[in-house]
Amino acid sequence: MEYENTDYTEYAKFFAENIQHTNADGENVYSALRYTQFLKDWNENLDLNINELKVFLEKCEENEKKSLTKERKKGEKTLQERGIDISYANLFFLCRYIIALNGSWYLALLKPTVSQTLELINDIEKIEFINKDGSSVGTDLWGIINPIKSILKTIAEDSTYEVEDIVSVKEWSNKEIFQADFVYCLSRFLRKFFLQADRRKNAYISESEQQLVLDMLSYFGFAPKEGLTKMRYRQLMMYAKDVVESFSYFEIDGIEFPISFVKHEDWKDRKLNYIIKSDKEDRTKEERVGTNYNKVLNQLSVNDTIIFPQKVKEKLENIANLSPKC
């Protein structure tokens, strides 16, 4: 079979060296997972991984036979006709690598701001102070309450955020962010690796490549086996642009961690409130032409200040100690 006597790591090496550490604008970014660590993990379970690769290649061979008899639309071209000679063993290994990278982000969940807290306060009758030892003192003296209210109002517009917790994307994110990242990464690879492919002018990748990406999305369990459309591909790519590229990077102990700072209103219901509309949902005219398409996370501005309490710093340090350094 194809994997025998061949290097099936070529695509993943290319991705790691040319794509993984840069964003779509060519800016340098980093990932918590390194290719060398992934390769080590792969080899530790080599027999199981090779068996899964065999099953994948058999499925690809079966699909290719079906495609030879399938009636094509006018002007439709195969990957080969577009100058794209896919090595499916390499493709399998690359997809597994992208999936491994998929969960290596973190979310910094932010506490409510002072102004958000004040919005919940109506007529204050009593204030309670809690000492470090756990004891508390309550007071209803207006001589204390009024000055405190006045101070809070003066700092309500301060753009300072405090981090409540650091969590893994795997723990919190909905499935769309994983779908979007998989589609985005695989599309970037195809565009950059097959530079001379026959594509329409201004098209990121060809429709044949889009279908390949959707097929891989289904095969690896990110989406249903049937019913994925080119519209869904475009949705996920736009979603990736809006959300996946919003991750910033936080350095600790020499490691760059992908982190997205999430405002309290976007996680207060214990889930992340960003969504993608399905093909069947009604959309406005602006959404149909690609603007205002997704509800995305409320972004921080460059002037905002982020405070990391000691317990959060310690959690980050623990993550650093458990993360690969190669």
Write up what this structure looks like.
Helices cover 44% and strands 12% of the residues. It is α/β, with parallel strands linked by helices and 326 residues long. The chain has one domain (10-109, 167-322). The protein has a 5-stranded mixed sheet. Helix 3 crosses helix 4. The protein is elongated and about 85 Å long. The model is unreliable at 275-297 (pLDDT under 50).
Outline the secondary-structure elements.
Blueprint: H1 10-18, H2 35-44, H3 46-69, H4 88-102, E1 106-110, H5 114-119, E2 127-130, E3 136-139, H6 142-154, E4 160-168, H7 169-172, H8 175-193, H9 207-219, H10 230-242, E5 248-252, E6 255-262, H11 285-288, E7 305-307, H12 310-322
Parallel strand pairs: 1-6, 4-7
Antiparallel strand pairs: 1-4, 2-3, 5-6
Extended strand count: 7
Form type: elongated
Describe the sheet with the most strands.
5 strands, mixed
What letter string, H or E per element, gives the SSE order?
Answer: HHHHEHEEHEHHHHEEHEH
The share of residues in extended strands comes to: 5-15%
Largest sheet strand order = 5-6-1-4-7
**If helices are DSSP runs of H or I spanning 4 or more residues, what is the number of helices?**
12
